[in-house]
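Entry 12.
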Amino acid sequence: MSAPESDAAMRISRRGSGSWATLPGSASPTASREPTVTADPIEKIEGRWTLQILLCLNGGEHRFSDLRAAIPRVSANIMTDRLRALESAGLVQRHRLAPPHASQVYMLAECAAGLRPALDELARWRVDAGRALDAMTIIDALGTLNYEEKKA
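Predicted 3D structure (tokens):
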């Protein structure tokens, strides 16, 4: 095999911090959707939007549309992806409601029961931090008004 053929035969790609080799005719490394077994349970809750989803579900069952309304900045595709990942990790359960509702709802699974105290504290912190940020906004606004009054 000549040098150009060997370069064409093996492409080294980089994505994020990992790297991989792709041979012609082989599946791309991102094509596999098999769940990865990890030793660290924290990895199950990593990722953007995952914590917000868990915080919503900690309050009880939610339909997909309710979750979208509660977290409006997340797209439907990403929400679906995160819910599937949480479901495959055993942290979220999905079940169908009886008619006349006949929609699917999501809830925290038994496996996630240990997360509830941490999620409760995070929700409480979110409210307290929001109040602190609102208070700082008011203080900043008052400071700006006082500065402009003195300037005039």
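Annotation: Strands lie at 11-15, 18-22, 62-63, 92-96, 104-108. The chain has a mean pLDDT of 74.
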